[in-house]
Amino acid sequence: MSTTQINQLLTFKLGNETYGIEINKVREILTYPVVTPIPDASCWVKGVINLRGEVAPIIDLRVRFNINTQPVYNERTIVIAVRTQDARMIGLVVDEVSDMENVDLDKLYPAPDMGASIAPKYLKGLFKKEEKMIVILDIDKILDKEEMQRLSRHPQEAASHVLAA
Amino acid sequence: MSKILIVDDSNMLRDMVKYALNEGGYPDVTEAVDGVDGLAKAKTTVFDLIVSDINMPNMNGFELIAELRKMPTYAKTPILTLTTEKNDDMKAKGKEVGATGWIVKPFVPEQLLKAVGIVLGR
Amino acid sequence: MAVFDINKYRQMFLEEAEDIFEIIDNILLEAEDAGDMDNETINSLFRSVHTLKGNSASVELSKFAALAHELEFFMDKLRNGKLLFEESMASLLIDGVDTLKHILELELSDELEHDYFMTIKEELLYKLDNFSQDIKEIELLNEEFSVEESKVIEVEKEDEFLVKEIEEVSAFGMLFPRESNAYGPMNGGIMDLGEDEGFGFFDELELLDDEGFGFFHELESVDNKEFDEGFGFFDDTEIINDEGFGFFDELELVDDEGFGFFDEPSNIEYKKVQAPLREAKKEIEVKDNEAKDGKKFKVDNASNSIRVDLSKIDALMNNIGELVIAHSMLTQYTFMMQDQKIKSELSERLDLLDRYIRELQESVMGVRMIPMETVFSKFPKVIRDTAKKLNKKIDFRHYGDSVEIDKAMIEGLTDPLTHIVRNAMDHGIESIDRRKAVGKNETGTLIMSAEQANGQMIIKIQDDGGGINLARVTEKAIQNGILDESQAAQMSKDDKAMLIFAPGLSTAEAVTDISGRGVGMDVVMSNIKKLGGVVKVETEEGMGSTFTIVLPLTLAILDGLNIRVGEEHFILPLSAIIETLKPEEDMIKQIGDEESEVLMLRNEFIPVVRLHTTFNITPENHKLSDGLLIVVRSGAKKIALFVDEFMNQQQFVVKPLDKNFRNAQGIGGATVRGDGTIGLIIDTMNITQNTTRRAS
After folding, report:
1. With 90 as the cut, is the pLDDT of residue A92 above it?
2. ipTM
3. What is the CATH code of the structural domain delimited by A6-148?
4. Domain ranges in chain A?
5. How far does the CA of residue C216 sit from the closest CA of chain A (Å)?
């Protein structure tokens, strides 16, 4: 058996750039549903939806990475439902879903330190095909539980609440 | 395709046996958690082979085999016992109740498959 | 070639082992108390250890298995009446089982040194052998047995070496050299061992040709052969037995394949060697076994249950949730129907469907409920060990064993309960001398109880110790800057007792390894809160303390009230609601700045929380008297939530939010509504805290 790792990617657009995530992470692609907002949540957390019986948060990757901070949500808005390594179901809002690509994960270019909208620690690498360049996201890093909590923590959370009880 | 019933009270061992059987080309495997469960399942489905633990709550392997042998459907069905107990008692008792053979725990998949292959005529 | 995923199976083994250890511990603790053990119990003990041995060997925990084997061997003697139970054995066996757990931990983390293991094993064997001396006396009565016993001893000497060898040779610690001891001598001596290993094939020749020997020891089969011969366990013809499986002479098989050890002439040779010794005793042994089996049947009959992964039940609950949604969509659809006759008939059937769905939901909920006994049964061992370490005497009692609790709650409950129990034993119950000095019984009492009342689960842990020294706790709290003197002066006795749940407080003069440096009681509080519960403590100096934990009956279903704030809808748990009212203007008082409003209700001042402010929503009403107030309970305090509208009351299937987020202030969970959207459930506890903080 060969040791190269061929993976299928689902590619999509955030602004003008093309990004990809491994297809085995993707559970469903849906149009923007009725989202229940979570009070006081970070601006990139649009709220929660019911996804196959699970309460799944909807995260707008465009807002999360400052690609578009004032996006419009309508019936053409696309959500990619992914399942993280630790089995959480999360919906990602993207601009448009493009295509499937076969990628040899061993032959990626390393993510550049500068230039991309998304910090290298959230990337698996770059993949070039003809003229196209696809940035492969490390979805488990982006959606890491602690990372998300760190980014959305409220200062009061840490305060003692013993006396109030 | 051979239908196989595994009877063991240990979730882990059932999973191991099932895994070994699946890998060995026996995809149709049903699990039962004790003799009572095994007997109930054997009554609703005709299995080609039964692999049963001995030391189980509710109804042990010997009791199960004895019950199965009373049923015309299972008069000649191969039944392998899966057990740590490998003494004469076990064998005498196994023979007495009509078991086909025994497999000693712990087992490696090859052993199990070899034994299963023989009784299923593969 | 199929290879077992050892890590996966070790995990499964661990889960099963935990349960088995609990059974063993409780049997032994009872035996220690009673000073006696009946046959059924001994059998059940033997079988438990036997299962541990067999299963651990299957996941390559060979040292653990070897040690389990020693205990099994000992228990087998008890079981066979070769050894009589003595009071002191229970304690020895408890220690033995602890050693087993210890070895398991080390072997799993790959930190078990061979020398250390041998020392531990020697120690255990030495202790066990002290009792075994007595056996020999019993055995001397039977000449035959005594002869065999001498052979056994010979084998034991080689034992260490064997274990070592085998571990090196085979990935699977397959052979237990002492297995031979366990079964061999009683069944007819060492000559039998080869066969006893489970190898005696009926199709000897065929297998020999096919495979030779050594399924067990594929890699080193030659070595094994030598090794076997070296000890005279197997004679040459029996090496085929390494297959590890065998067949009883079964009908067709005998004819077709030449199987059939017992009957085949070709096997006579083999049989001859052993027959004289074996045949005679087999009869007795088999009879014995039958008697035992009969008992076994009875003992285990009580628990006709299966083990189901909680996630499977959750999946089932999800499916039912989907069913509820589909049902409500259908109901919605009937509203649009023109034909009144069809409409009413359809509605009728939909009502029926609704009832079935509810029943289904209830049954599935029932599956999640398990008796509190499961929780309590973890404690005798904890208490015994702790009491031993602290040199205290404790009488542990528990009530409400059959009260049912949501299985999902147990995991979150065990840690806080253990902590409270340890804390009560360490800091609560006094030393024996102290108890005598104050005129108490030298044995302290610890009572755990569970009951259901008003749709809630109430668990109490009560001790008759010295109680909490409130003065000292308050002093420490002031020292640690948790509160100031004037605050302390205003605090009630109960409020002061609650200070023990503050981080960093410990009242014991000497920090012990039992309950530590006051780390943990704050964790107890937060763990209980995570379960949607509250914990209170009442204490009486010199008399003892009572911890009361109040939990919702289930984490999965909640009776809630739909409320509206501006455009948003939320669900408020009915259990938290005290009353709802439309306030008159003169009931509202302003305190200090305009932010702090209180509701004056029958001489009580209740802080008002504007939900629209908390949740940052544009409300419909700004004036309190235009909207509605809901007085809710949150721990010991009350607050009044300001909302725009109350809607319907309904049951909701609760789904956790915290799998993804913990930052949602005042939101405790979520549910799927009839239209398929998500509804958020308000956590009144967190809202209270928010406003208290904001106000201060």
Report:
1. yes
2. 0.89
3. 2.40.50.180
4. 6-148
5. 28
